[in-house]
Specification:
With 758 residues, this protein is α+β, with helices and mostly antiparallel strands. It is built from 25 helices and 14 strands. The strands form three sheets. Strands 7, 8, 9, 10, 11, 12 and 13 form a seven-stranded antiparallel β-sheet that branches. A five-stranded antiparallel β-sheet has the order 2-3-1-5-4, sandwiched between helices. The protein has a two-stranded parallel sheet with strand order 6-14. The longest helix is centred in the N-terminal third of the chain and has 35 residues, at 174-208. The protein is elongated, with a radius of gyration of 30 Å.
């Protein structure tokens, strides 16, 4: 490829000129309309709170979900939505405590919102009393979907919590856990914004030396976030939206919009400092940084769309949030921010403009001949760093890559699970109550596995009794209850009772499997697979929390290849259209995979294994990593890292067109953009680190992981590995086979140098 830019892409200036001219004429009306629309969207977006869900972890058509649906519909049973832990001073069997327990049980049994109830009183089920006999359980299955059950559980909790006569009551269960997740995520959102907003504003003021420029970047972020919250509110009418979608929206929205504002405003100020008037500066900024912003926003949007490959409401709602906020951040940057710059005029460029002007003047006096000969000498830290790396590129690769692989090594020990009550803080009342159940009761009575046998309606079927006996012989199974009685270790321990009738109905029969295995554990997964491998009288559906984990892991495994393929294809295609190169997109994908794997390893070391907890804040170590969070980090990080990749490449390509020398182009491009993408990385790191202050472990993990990924990308990857590999590749960086070169000439896009754009 020649220095003139053969294969680097066509120029398309007319559309940008017309757009700037139109916005210049109507700039005040446009800004007024933007503010009015944003205020209206804010009122709509506020309605999203209270309509979010804490579930969506399991595919709706999975075997565990179908088993749960049949239990709820045909048998009015299944794992409880709400569990009451009823404690007595001495014993729950003491007459006064037992009488109060029976009254509480009858009161709840007559509640029209309760579908099914299991209580220690009056049957004195041994699985529903603690080892010291001072705490008994009352488990309730509630009518309605997740949102209605959550409201009902909160109402019952308020009615029974505290002290009632001789009894004290605390609550656990997925419905109250979901409600507490939502409430805590809202509190964490407010705290994160209170931490991040002033720090980001301070960083922007220090970068720009100008309060107005900083406020314009924040204004762009606010529009993107408000618009996405309004869209999420609309989506709640049609699908489940996770409580974490709002936290991701605010963190990612402000981070991306401020990054894009940094890119555009900085280029605008450079053009003002070069002597252009405001309109020309805006036009050049749109043609150069604006195109980079467009491609970056498109890359993040399409990367987040990879989450749609998974049939999970949790990931899909985060995909909607991420796609929306990235698209709106990009649109705000190229549509609204230029109008703001037209209105602000020269007021955005005072201090830094003078510094840039002096810098450019000094560079000009150094002589263009030295530049074109490839002997242009550096002017700052980033240029010197790039040239030092490029003097010994192989040594840099040999040192940095093993360091990243060392960080990645703990990922080999990953154990996947799902979030439960331990996602809440240790001080959470719901977690404390659930922890009592976990420690003081002999079995996982409220987290039982269930086996549904649709169509098996013969209550006295010998096949059913034989099947129940075989199930009771499975490792980790303590007891099996069904319509033919109770079974332990292959022997029927008790004949059927009147209560056994609940295990049979017109739709078939089911078995309750009491186990000592933690639901979200390796033992729980092995138990589910063993139960599903047993031959049954009719095709069986195995459900329960452990089965949900097995099904979720299977869905994630099936969709991971599709999601990775989407992201790789998106990044390769867009970077090819942006650069006209084949090698550059391949390099970007490989380096992103390397830094992301290092991030995953660090997350396992910190959160699964619990090392350095003082560094990231207190949380509960479960020995597992949430199955879905690495998938989310994979999509977000791949998209966000393209911000720096595209911005750096755009300046490298400008320098390469001017000089035709790869070393000069890389050093010059890194010098021009290093300070800026370092500042952009700092902004993203601050917003993500603020999310890491959450008391919810998934948000803390996501915040720490994304912060680390951004820091690794902006330092080891962008400042060291990129210059080293581009130096080793030389002119091959810009190689493109003839057929693809023709394709790029027709449909490719490339930033233009500001001289050409003038």
């Amino acid at each position: 490829m020649t220095p003139g830019g053969e294969g680097l892409g066509p120029m398309r200036p007319k559309g940008a000129e017309r757009l700037v001219h139109l916005r210049s004429r109507w700039r005040y009306a446009f800004l007024a309309l933007t503010v009015l629309v944003t205020v209206g969207l804010a009122f709509v977006g506020l309605g999203v709170f209270g309509r979010l869900t804490g579930g969506g972890w399991t595919p709706a058509d999975a075997e565990s979900a179908r088993a749960d649906a049949v239990l709820r519909k045909d048998f009015h049973s299944g794992n409880p939505d709400l569990v009451l832990l009823v404690g007595a001073p001495r014993s729950v069997d003491e007459p006064r405590a037992a009488a109060a327990g029976r009254r509480l049980t009858e009161r709840l049994r007559t509640d029209s919102r309760v579908q099914h109830l299991d209580s220690y009183w009056p049957r004195r089920d041994p699985s529903l009393v603690s080892r010291d006999r001072r705490t008994a359980l009352v488990s309730l299955r509630l009518l309605g979907g997740e949102r209605e059950a959550t409201r009902t559980a909160e109402s019952i909790r308020r009615a029974v919590a505290g002290t009632t006569g001789p009894l004290t009551t605390s609550v656990a269960g997925r419905a109250v856990a979901s409600r507490e997740l939502e409430a805590q995520s809202q509190r964490d959102l407010v705290r994160a914004e209170l931490i991040a907003a002033p720090l980001v504003l301070l960083i922007l003021v220090l970068i720009f030396g100008n309060v107005l420029s900083a406020l314009l970047a924040l204004f762009a972020g606010g529009i993107a976030v408000v618009g996405t919250l309004a869209l999420l509110r609309v989506l709640t009418e049609f699908t489940q939206v996770s409580v974490f979608a709002v936290n991701l929206t605010t963190a990612l929205g402000f981070a991306l919009a401020i990054d894009y504002g940094l890119f555009l405003i900085t280029r605008h100020r450079e053009e003002l400092a070069a002597g252009r008037d405001v309109g020309q500066a805006v036009l050049v900024s749109l043609r150069t940084a604006g195109r980079t912003v467009f491609f970056s926003a498109l890359t993040v949007t399409l990367s987040m769309s990879a989450l749609l490959a998974f049939p999970l409401h949790f990931l899909r709602s985060l995909a909607y949030a991420g796609m929306s906020v990235a698209a709106l951040a990009g649109l705000t940057a190229v549509l609204v921010l230029p109008v703001c710059l037209l209105v602000a005029g020269h007021r955005v460029g005072h201090r830094v403009g003078r510094r840039v002007g002096r810098r450019r003047g000094a560079a000009s006096s150094a002589g263009a001949a030295a530049d074109s000969a490839g002997t242009w000498r550096g002017r700052g830290f980033f240029d010197r760093t790039a040239r030092t790396v490029m003097r010994r590129p192989l040594l840099t690769v040999v040192l940095v890559v093993p360091a990243l692989l060392c960080l990645a090594s703990p990922f080999q020990r990953v154990e996947f699970g799902l979030s439960d009550d331990r996602a809440l803080s240790a001080s959470s009342p719901v977690h404390r109550a659930t922890d009592v159940m976990r420690k003081d009761f002999d079995t996982q009575a409220t987290d039982m596995a269930s086996i549904v046998l649709p169509g098996l309606t013969n209550a006295s079927s010998p096949d059913l009794a034989d099947y129940a006996r075989r199930v009771s012989l499975t490792p980790h199974v303590l007891r099996v209850d069904t319509v033919t009685g109770s079974y332990t270790a292959g022997v029927r321990q008790a004949p059927p009772t009147p209560m056994s009738a609940r295990f049979s109905g017109l739709g078939g029969s089911w078995l309750s499997v009491v186990t000592d295995a933690e639901p979200y554990s390796a033992e729980g997964g092995r138990l589910v697979r063993a139960l599903r491998a047993l031959s049954a009288p009719v095709p069986a559906l195995v459900g329960g929390d452990a089965a949900a984990l097995v099904d979720t892991r299977a869905v994630v495994g099936d969709g991971l290849g599709r999601a990775a393929g989407i992201i790789v294809l998106v990044i390769f295609t867009l970077l090819f259209l942006f650069t006209g190169s084949v090698l550059v997109p391949v390099k970007a994908v490989v380096l992103n995979m390397l830094s992301l794997t290092a991030t995953f390893g660090a997350v396992v070391y910190l959160f699964q294994e619990g090392h350095l907890r003082w560094l990231v804040g207190d949380f509960i170590v479960t020995g597992t990593t949430d199955t879905l969070l690495p998938v989310l980090m994979f999509c977000v990080t791949f998209g966000v890292s393209m911000d720096y990749e595209m911005f750096l490449l755009s300046r490298i390509m400008e320098e390469y067109r001017r000089t035709g020398d790869t070393t000069t182009a890389v050093a010059g491009g890194l010098e021009e953009t290093g300070r800026l993408f370092t500042a952009a990385a700092l902004v993203i790191a601050v917003t993500m680190a603020a999310m890491a202050t959450s008391h919810l472990t998934p948000l803390k993990l996501l915040g720490v992981g994304l912060t680390l990924a951004v820091v690794l990308d902006a330092t080891l990857v962008r400042m060291l590995l990129v210059p080293a590999i581009m130096k080793m590749a030389g002119r091959a960086n810009w190689w493109c086979p003839a057929p693809l070169r023709h394709v790029h000439a027709k449909v490719g896009f490339t930033e233009a140098a500001s001289k050409a754009a003038a």
